[in-house]
Model the fold of this input.
Amino acid sequence: MNEILLTAVWGIVMMLAGAFVKNKSIPKYIAIGGLLITIFATCRELYYQQLIFDIDVKGMLNVERDVSFHLTFLVAMLVCTLFYFLLNGRDIEKVGNNVSEYFALIFFILCGVGIVASFNTLLMLFIGIEIISIPLYILTGADKRNLKSNEAGLKYFLMGAFSTGIMLMGIAFIYGGNESGSFFLDKINLGTGNMSVLTTIGLVLLMISLSFKVSAAPFHFWTPDVYDGAPTVFTSFMSTIVKAASFFAFARLFDNAFGTMQVQWQKLIVLITAATLLIGNLTAVFQQSVKRMLAYSSIAQAGFMLFALFAMNGKAKEGLVLYGTAYSLATIGIFAVLIKMNDYTIDGFNGLAKKQPVLAFAATIFLLSLTGIPLTAGFMAKFYMLMAAVDRGNNIWLVVLAVLCAAISAYYYFRVIQAMYFKENNEVTAQQEWDVTPSFKILLLVLVGIIILLGIFPNQLLIDWLWY
Amino acid sequence: MQTLGLRFPEILLWSPLIAGLLCFILRNDKQSRNVALGSSLITLAISIATLFYANDKQLSGLKDSYVWLPYIGSSFSIGLDGMGHLLTFLTALSFPIIFIATSKTEYKNASSFYGLMLLSQTGLLGVFMAMDALVFYFFWELALIPVYFLSSRWGGERRIQATFKFFVYTFAGSLLMLVGIIYIYLQTPATQAAMHSFSINAFYSLHLSFQQQYWLFWLFFVAFAIKMPVFPFHTWQPDAYEQAPTAVTMVMSGIMVKMGVFALLRWLVPYFPEAMDKYRSIIIWLSVIGMLYASLIAMKQDDIKRLVAYSSIAHIGLMCAAIFTSTANGVQGVMIQMFSHGINIIGMWIVVELLERQTGVRKISQLGGVAHKAPVLTIMLVVIAFANIALPLTNAFIGEFMMFNGLSQANIWYAAVAGISIILGAVYTLNMVQKVFYGETNTLTATIKDINWNEKLVLAVVVIIIFIVGVYPQPIFDLTKEAVTLFATKGK
Done:
């Protein structure tokens, strides 16, 4: 609750700052300050249930301590955002003239993240998803003079509008098919009985629209173009925190509203998961641009996160938080390195280890984490997901498919590592000037440290500290 | 002393790790080489010290355990028991030999090279000591990553592709094994701390149904078969061995392939008795066909490295076949052969390394008459070659004899086909010795100098071990006695 209020307020503060502060490098610090306050307040809420304002939410948002799992997730996401701001602050300034507006939009997105993490009714879900989406359309097209950015923004907006329509339709059907006549998740949940026709249609429509938001196949076609076209700093944000939050919403909705009927819709999720894993991984293999490769990799990783819906048990929920965090941290890191490159192709990374050993080392760890090598957070995340899925007991073939896809993913992640360490640089990359400050390097190493610590002690860091 | 004895597995694990990280920090080539050599000698000393406690019942098997992930029932437990003990000793022994033998080879960025070598040693030691399935998996992968970087960075011309093939193969195999581990884990009964347990004892006490065994067996077997490698999963191996720098090839062939054999015994045989029974003949036939096939290809090789690589496939095939006979003799033979093969093949690589460093080539057809110029090297090589073809008095004879004994107990035809490959082994090994070391010297070999003292030292160590184990293998029998009984009877 604190998070939603503070981010909304701070978004407005940032907009005002845009009107009064002329210096381009100031907004960054204001944003980081606001984020720190938000993290602090969210931690207070998590540990002491301390709310800034005691607002009666009429049960539409989850504010209770004993089910504050979502706060753990929120804190993790806010910390990821903090790293995002710290690493990319200077690059956000370079996108255009309206620096504080960008930060304001990001704060509004964070407000949406807070809502989708704690919604109790379908209305709140809808509002949250929209609060996330609309600023994103703007951010995607933020590089106004770049045609690709414009195209991506428009494409994202049109596709997003469609999926919003589908979601509303789904909500309407669910409402109509429900005897209690309510939008509340616990009222919709009717136990293990067979679903009525209206509920079935509503559920499928909701699944489609949320699959679109998390870019699961076959609703992923917008992802590569949008991720590729958007300014790289915003791609980084879009493919990490926003994606993890959409997944959390997806899992929360299907767990709380339809969890008891999981047997009936699990088949659909199995199909979506299998398609996402295969399409994401196989297409990523053929990419020459690292940015586009990361777009497909985000689809591939979504396949693993879908296991949370496939398994729908306690381990899966913990796994989703861990996976979202591990994936976000590593992806933010790799994008931060990517932004510093002039040449986004894989060949552009040739010989990076010689020129920028710290960047190359950090990027290697991020890529290893994305691949899921032990000692990194990525392994523990994959491990939890696999454990949850095997625990579910059926469709073991899907788990085997997933691990084979993980082996394929090694192919494209390691191509970058090979370029950095084992290949000589070419003329273009040799002349590049590096805009890399010592503090940037230190931050990268801190991020590496966190990824490795999460890989060794996932419980201690994420679950013990935060949840209990 | 008793408390110190209890800490042995831990010290054994941390000493190469700390030294390895130190190497990265040093960034001075000469210093890091000395650190690497020093730490490997310390590790060897610790390992020898642990051998004195091997049969000390009071210490109950030199075990260490820490709370790690209590919620999911995994603890960081490592320990030394018979078979693992033997292989940790092999690991500890091999690294100083490798470092001394290759100390003349210059590496760019030597500090990273030695750092990664020591990290891979940590991973290997961890695999042999792990007493918890998750810890085992951790180390299993951790041994792989440094080797991947070592070969890709310091290897031959086609190193990137060859090493990557190796990596993807083994990574895919390991992930399948991970699914298997998780599945078995979820079958284990609840403990006080958690719903299930990853501890090896919980795994051992479990009895899986036939249906479960039949498919789980393959998840594990494929992972181990790729690592060993057993036909038809061997295709990564000759390229990877050829392209890796020789020091790394020694690690891969001397120790890493033993991970596969070891894991087969410890992490596969005990869980799947019925599945073993069902698939026994398929796997033994695969192994012996692989032996024959590898031997035939080895005869046609011109590159010495590839020849040794294929001969290694044949040797490993025999071990795999012997394990699946589930006879006491066969399994005992595997134990002793794991150790012997590690020593012998490292000896072979050292000779290859010495030749390559001096002449710049590894082609059998381009070499010749080395014996005139380097008599000491030749004597050493001949002994190692004899050990490679398992002549009596050498270490490999004991192991191969016992494994053949096991095979013929199971089915005489297995032994017959495998026997052909042993004869072929003698053909190609002696052919190689003859062409490279005898005959006329040519322009390439005319300038060869005989080996200097530290190369003599390591080769002498190898040769002495070959004879000691060949004549008096009893200590190894004693060390692995319990393991043999366990694995031979479990499989029945």
Notes: The interface with chain B takes residues 368, 373-375, 379, 383, 386-387, 390-391, 396, 399-400, 403-404, 406-407, 410-411, 414, 418, 421-423, 457-459, 463 of chain A (CB under 8 Å). Chain A is about 75% helix and 0% strand. Residues 2-467 of chain A form one domain. The radius of gyration of chain A is 21 Å.
